[in-house]
């Protein structure tokens, strides 16, 4: 009996182990299922959190995109669309203005966008060109009217001068014959070659004829000296009778009122693009106020009236010639003047370099 109990004691222990193992085997699947369920629930919660976060971020992105579109739209309206609308109203207002300078609207435009400023600058430039064309047309009409008023049959004039010269030669009055011949050549060049370009030599011959007449008139009170280089005489062209009015102005306002013998010198030189001729006299000079007026008028685009020029005792011929040169050749050309009272005056004539073989620039400032 004892043997039997002893025999089965290990079996009892084995039964406990088996029971424990059975319990473990029984509970482990449930535990694992519980853990799996917890993990699954955690995974679901984690996925939910991730989905919620992604949706939140997506909303933020869409909101930022929407705000960016709105901001870009506002910027586009301010800098592109609004100026275009404003420009349209500007055009309509400009059409109703006769002179923008006199309108308060013009001051408002100055603070507007660059598009409007560029547009207004273009309109002002076009307006300036139209004004210049109108000035040139008015001057041309005035010149034609003056020519009609003073027109004399050239052949009648030439024949009369030739008759006077012939009588002078018959009676051995050489001075009258020489003066008449000089006057005849001067008028011939003035009429026959009007509106043309002359070589520098031909234009200086016109000046010599004019000076010959003046020397007879003033009984040799002043001397004429030409210092232009001979290499320039037949190479360059200038408008017909453009130097003579400058020489005449030097005599009338400088040498005529000088006590004693005076001198008039014509010199010239060439730069890369300009032909510069200087007419210098040692006459009475020009007073400071009159000189400032003359310099201002020489730079101005407006014509000077004879009454205004007479007020300052300055020659209107210089102003008109300078303006015609600028209209014909450009703003960088024209006349400049410097003078010292009691010392003399230098008048500078600035022209483009037009070589004899260069026919691109035709006509005259008197057209």
TrEMBL record:
Q: Which Pfam families match?
A: HATPase_c, His_kinase
Signal transduction histidine kinase internal region domain: from which residue to which, for each copy? 144-222
**Keyword Disulfide bond recorded:** no
Which terms are listed as keywords in the entry?
Answer: Kinase, Membrane, Transferase, Transmembrane, Transmembrane helix
Q: Which InterPro entries match?
A: Bact_2-comp_sensor_kinase, HATPase_C_sf, HATPase_dom, Sig_transdc_His_kin_internal
The molecular function terms of the Gene Ontology recorded here are: phosphorelay sensor kinase activity
List its EC numbers.
Answer: 2.7.13.3
GO cellular component terms, A-Z: membrane
Which spans are transmembrane here? 56-80
Q: Does the keyword Kinase apply?
A: yes
Q: Which residues form the Histidine kinase/HSP90-like ATPase domain?
A: 242-352
Q: What is this protein called?
A: Sensor histidine kinase YehU
Q: Which organism is it from?
A: Robinsoniella peoriensis
